[in-house]
Specification:
The complex is a heterodimer of chains A (303) and B (263). Chain A has 303 residues and is of the alpha/beta class. Chain A is built from 8 helices and 16 strands. In chain B, α5 runs parallel beside α6. The chains are: A alpha/beta (303), B alpha/beta (263).
């Protein structure tokens, strides 16, 4: 038996596979399809303080091996989440992570503070990298100083471990990762989606109601892998890798590049049983390669 | 809700750009209701990436059928599947048509435009089970759009055809034919599926005739499970207008809940 567990220091996952925010609803939607306790963890859809309407449709555009979305974080808000959803999630034997959003620094703090008063969460993921909620796709994770301030503020009000989710829409993602680390973030997750545009040629209009969106899917995997590699070499805190992971091989590559755990996103749409299949595939691979612990491969890229 | 990765195609039929696939998927078939849909993976690779949402056209025993028109790359790939091949399908997705006890002994109008007839065949069969009388209206631009003509005519149901060019049935729009019939008959309900303009027009006709109605809506979808919020549309519910998910809150909505593009 291979030990699949992933020890992030602040949190021990039974395996390194976490369902990514925005692709897994509030978690329970997948319950009819498989046992959620198979997961290393799950990150629920981004939560603002109040319910949020989201962006005008169309919100999706398919591209070769990719998907551009501009959902705009439509959601139920933190109060409904804590009352109606969290008590059910808390019964699961898997790490439940809440994705924390905010219009500005204070809202991030209010959401984190509110969530911290409830039982059942293993960690918070700080969503400072959504490209769909501010004009031109701007987000705090594009600026090391704004990242530092937001992380610092949330750490002041919440005792829960914090995973800061980074944006790939930057020149140097390592600078932002270092800022999050310095401000006290326990981990970083990367990458969020790539700011993108799809055009309907005949009408010469954008395919998305919000003009720009975020690209995810297999198309972004090599880019995400490169960024995980760069960040993992710079920071001391654990790195959670994501971006186009569709198979166990993809997930293993992210670990070799330096990720201690991975998140699986868009794959959940294409193959709803992607997460358990990836976990099984990683276990088989580790066994066939004679590993005792899967975590041995983290950061093992030979360069 | 089940994911069946081995739904074996047992039969395919083709009329021009329209196709019908029959597949064996016992678990999904057991739960399927009229108006629900399947999310079908059309490629084992990643291009196109997303599953395609298709209404359940018929459900008998352990068999499911989908009826669709080739409108893009996804449906083109699906149209090339052969009997014996296996599909990865997810379903039954969404909430279907409301079948009410008071339909018993009453006429129910089922109005489909082109490929919009897809969910209405299964619906009409279920209407018969509750001892209601389905009255089908099937419109297209021209005769070749009435791909299911022979199949429908073999059922014994009353079928009212229309074509824009008069090549078969009533010459004109299916909505005109419905309006005509409503002057002399009092159905208990109308179900519709088809082009947006057709459904918007029907909604108006139903409102003027005080005829309750439901429509099945179409959208690009990310997941079909209600988790991505990619397929939303503005819907009136409980005095509020909000973005609801066509996949999970629909695809069937009451006529008065839907905001049409002209509204």
């Amino acid at each position: 038996m291979v030990d699949l567990s992933s020890d992030l220091g602040f949190l021990r996952l039974k395996n390194p596979v976490i369902a990514a925010s925005g692709t897994f609803g509030y978690g329970l939607e997948f319950e009819p399809l498989y046992d959620l306790n198979l997961l290393g963890g799950l990150v629920v859809k981004g939560l603002y303080f109040k319910p949020r309407e989201g962006n005008p449709p169309p919100r999706l555009a398919e591209t070769p091996c990719g998907l551009i979305n501009s959902i705009g974080l439509q959601g139920i808000g933190v109060e409904a989440f804590c009352q109606e959803v969290l008590p059910k999630l808390a019964l699961l034997q898997t790490a439940i992570i809440a994705n924390v959003c905010g219009e500005e620094e204070e809202e991030y703090a209010r959401v984190a503070e509110y969530l911290s008063r409830h039982q059942g969460l293993a960690a918070l993921e700080l969503n400072i990298s959504c490209p769909n909620v501010r004009a031109g796709g701007k987000c705090p994770a594009q600026d090391p100083e704004a990242t530092y301030r937001t992380v610092k503020r949330v750490k002041q009000v919440s005792p829960l471990p914090l995973i800061t989710k980074l944006s790939p829409n930057v020149t140097d993602i390592t600078a932002v990762a270092l800022a999050a680390e310095e401000a006290g973030s326990e981990a970083v997750s990367l990458v969020n989606t790539f700011l993108a545009l799809a055009i309907d040629l005949e009408s010469r209009k954008p395919k998305l109601g919000n003009v720009l969106g975020g690209l995810s899917g297999p198309a972004i995997k090599p880019l995400a892998l490169r960024m995980v590699f760069e960040v993992a070499r710079k920071v001391k805190i654990p790195v959670i890798g994501l971006g186009g992971i569709f198979s166990s091989e993809d997930a293993l590559e992210f670990m070799v590049a330096g990720a201690s755990a991975v998140e699986v996103g868009t794959a959940n749409f294409v193959n709803p049983s992607a997460c358990p299949e990836i976990i099984k595939g990683m276990e088989d691979w580790a066994e066939s390669h004679g590993l005792n612990r899967l975590s041995e491969i983290v950061g093992s890229l030979k360069v | 809700m089940f994911q069946d990765k081995n739904a074996r195609i047992t039969e395919t039929q083709n009329w021009g750009s329209y196709f019908l696939l029959r597949m064996s998927a016992p678990q999904i078939a057991r739960e399927a209701r009229p108006g629900q849909f399947l999310m079908i993976r059309v490629s084992s690779g990643f291009n196109p990436l997303l599953r395609r949402p298709l209404s359940i056209h018929n459900c008998t025993g352990s068999n499911l059928e989908v009826f669709f028109q080739v409108t893009g790359e996804g449906t083109r790939l699906l149209s090339q599947k052969m009997a014996g091949e296996e599909l990865d399908i997810l379903g039954p997705c969404g909430h279907g048509f409301s079948l009410k006890p008071e339909f018993k002994g009453r006429e129910i109008f089922c109005v489909g435009g082109g490929r919009g007839l897809a969910p209405l065949y299964f619906l009409a069969r279920e209407l018969q089970m509750v001892e209601a009388t389905p009255v089908i209206f099937y419109g297209g631009q021209t005769l070749s759009d009435l791909a299911l003509k022979n199949r429908l005519e073999a059922t014994g149901w009353e079928i009212n055809f229309s074509t824009d060019d008069g090549s078969y049935g009533f010459k004109g729009l299916i909505t005109q034919l419905v309006e005509q019939q409503l002057r002399k008959r009092k159905p208990a309900f109308l179900f519709g599926c088809g082009p947006e303009a057709m459904m918007a027009c029907l909604a108006e006709i139903c409102q003027l005739s005080n005829l309750p109605a439901e429509f099945s809506l179409e959208s690009i979808m990310g997941c079909g499970l209600g988790v991505c919020w990619g397929c939303v549309r503005k819907i009136k519910k409980g005095g509020e207008i909000k973005y609801l998910r066509i996949c999970q809150d629909g695809p069937v909505f009451a006529a008065e809940e839907i905001l049409w593009s002209g509204d």
